[in-house]
Specification:
The complex is a heterodimer. By secondary structure, chain A is mostly helical. Chain A is built from nine helices and no strands. Chain A has helices at 4-15, 19-41, 44-60, 71-93, 95-102, 115-120, 124-134, 140-147, 151-165. Chain A starts with a helix and ends with a helix. In chain B, the strands form seven sheets. Chain B has a four-stranded antiparallel beta sheet with strand order 3-2-1-28, with no helix packed on it. In chain B, strand 24 and strand 25 (323-328) form a beta hairpin. Classes of the chains: A mainly alpha, B mainly beta. The interface between A and B is large, with 50 and 47 residues.
Amino acid sequence: MAGGRDERAWVHGAQRGSASDLEALFRLHWPRAFRAAFLVVHDSAAAEDIAQESFLAAVRALDRFDRRRPFGPWLHRIVVNRAIDWSRARQLRGETELLNIVAAPLEPDPLDGSLLASLAALPPEHRAVIVLRHLLEYTPGEIAELLGLPRGTVNSRLRRGLDSLKEHV
Amino acid sequence: MRRELERVEIPGEHEARTRARAVVLVAFSEREPTPHRRSRRPVAALAAAVVVVAGLLSPPGRAVLGELRAAVGVERAQPALFSLPAPGRLLVSSDSGAWIVDPDGSKRLLGDYREASWSPFGRFVVAARRNELAALEPDGGVRWTVSRQDVRSPRWTGSPADTRIAYVDRLGLRVVAGDGRRDRLLAPAEGGALAWRPGPGFELAYVSASEVRLQDVETGGVRWRANAGRLPAARALSWSADGSRLLVVLSDRLLLLDGRGRELARRTVHGILTAALSPDGGRVALARRTEIVLLDDRLRGPRRVFAGGGRLEGLTWSQDGRWVLTGWPAADQWVFVRVTRGEPRIVAVSNVSAQFRSGTFPRVEGWCCAG
């Protein structure tokens, strides 16, 4: 993992138009951004869209970014909020049911009784908190700030999530 | 816990990274790092410009951009349509009328028509003015005309011996023989998407309210109805060349039906603009927001083959199934994407509107038969 100084230098370089610095930021942050999105939405195509759109949003806003701050939380906030929105929208449309009933699976079903299956049983907002805490390793206070939630809400979602996932922890 | 979350296997992870990297770097190349944003320019041109700049920069910079070009397949946009990348001729509608584009890029204005489509085998063209349907020779000569009100969506089908044309007018869906005779109203008040089923007979699939129907236009009998009452109106219908599969394109999903109207697959996709089955029916090309995605014959395995910096318009397969053509109005470009195995290759053509003397972005109506 690159140090904060490297990251700041890459952000600065990217702001000045360096494609190789932007590439370095992508290389550093894509894997976790994509994985975080997938763990919230449980759909790899949607996760790709979400992570990609988040990077594009970051590129568009690059000039306004304060490079004294870390890039990761900025990106992760976009990714996780988009993933939550996508999951909510899917629930509203009942796509999951449609896909499960009518179509053959779009890809090998990852929900096979593993950690993912337990995660999938949680609401998307809870999945997001679990992912932020245990994949991206933010503190509850940081998660509260990233998602704009009271800290107590974050803690209760973490507790409930961990109860559901305890056999995998 | 973290280790467990990091060990979860995600289908297509590597491919997703490759695609996203290319798209992000192209978007970055478009970005103006000044407070005053300039007008958006074609990705191809900008990518080329960035390559020039990169030549002045460090070797790593050159490497990144070289990889970007390789990943996206972007080539410098041609300033004009010098040739088509696959056999066949294009039929195009613009403000100035309907045009035929030959393989060498030469263009011929057929006349002041606002919509057109090829006859089977590309021997003729059927074209629509506001109050006229016309059958044309490829040189623009008029074979016959029928006057009707608010004519649109002409589609021609049949064999060398016998053909039919379906179209929509103010009263509904009509059918006329290929010689301009026996014009009649087939389905009053119907005016949605329509597509002839390839093969013997004259069977027309069309969208009616919330269902898709297949009707034998000779007997009038409805062969089947699909998804009655459950679907919003479809945007487009697309048959495989052998008539065994029908793709139904809705705003938020794709349905694949067999020749008897039974559902083979469906896939929910956000932001669908249009989609079309490849000529062999083995793939689906999907225009979605700013990108072209390929799916397999079960609507699985999405593969992004092109991502632009603005909304795309239209999607047309070459007859050999090796290329798809989409319009990119924001860049005033046509983008030909080679969709054979391996990395996609992209040939972009600029200044499309001016080449067809059009104030609006020209629409590709079909890519038909060589000859």
